[in-house]
Amino acid sequence: MGHKLGIDLGGTKTEVVVLDPEGQTVYRQRVTTPADSYDAILDLISRLVRAAETELGLHVSVGIGIPGAISPRAGLLRNSNTVCMNGRPFASDLEASLEREVRIENDANCFALSEARGGAGRGHPTVFGVIIGTGTGGGLVIDGKLVNGPHAISGEWGHNPLPWQRSIDGSPSCYCGKSACIETFLSGPGLEHNYRLRFGESRSSHEIIAGASAGDDACEAMMALYHDQMARSLAQLINILDPHAIVFTKKFRNCCPPTFFQILSRLRCWRRHAETPAEFTARPCCGNNRSLVRGHSAMTLNLTPGKRK
Questions:
Q1: What is the DSSP secondary structure assignment for residue 85, as one 8-state letter?
Q2: Residue 26 domain-assigned?
Q3: pLDDT tens figures, 211-240
Q4: Which in 35, 149, 151, 216 has the greatest CB count within 10 A?
Q5: Do 14 and 161 reside in the same domain of the chain?
Q6: Would the pTM of this model clear 0.70, i.e. be above it?
Q7: Structural domain span for residue 255
Q8: Sheet holding 13-19, edge to edge
Q9: How far apart are CA 106 and CA 69, in angstroms?
């Protein structure tokens, strides 16, 4: 088994990690994603792969996690919050650029698989992985195997409508063409947009979270609503799947630790069964973005380094 390269293509940042045959990180690079240009994204990925191979002096197999998914029927990317990628033949274009086969999977699926096999979800039969960032994604793993249906949309809870919606929530429009999607409330841009609508000023999600911790009235009110919206969204998920574990990215857990515990305390109000059984746990992941790229690397196990199919 050779070296494996995993890429986490995010809406804001792109990270590449190379693992040696023992699973140890031997190379890592993180850069800004040129999210408004499809061609620039392809060029960035090609440059990152070739830079890693040049520094390490070897050819690697490549796995990449993306926002959205490749349509099994059309072969085109869809449902990506990096909207310039939607409707494009990303897989074939990237393989042509790199001159090799590339394993491509939804980023939340990669995260869920990594955490279920060797992270915070290890030992739990059913694990749902939650990514909150530029978008809102999820992945489902049962008995150590990724669940992916015929349309490649399993776990896409971010594009269901916010449950038990109230007038205070509003009904923001989503890039998918609908309104009041969970992502428009829980993502970083969603939080910023809804704060601006309510209070007439612009603040970043980090500033809103920090302001709430510092006692700012507007930020506290916004975060209280956010906690409730998150709890409602997770409660609907739990009511449908009843997972043994829900794992959050550590980035989300670290940037707003009070939020994590506020959400857990509010779940009781919205779950079908108010008690919290011993078998259920919600926890931050064991790693940070490395968990995502390790999951992407895991997708390359059956690929021959540097060989195009």
A1: G
A2: yes
A3: 998 999 999 999 999 999 999 999 999 989
A4: 35
A5: no
A6: yes
A7: 123-284
A8: 25-32, 13-19, 4-9, 61-66, 102-106
A9: 5
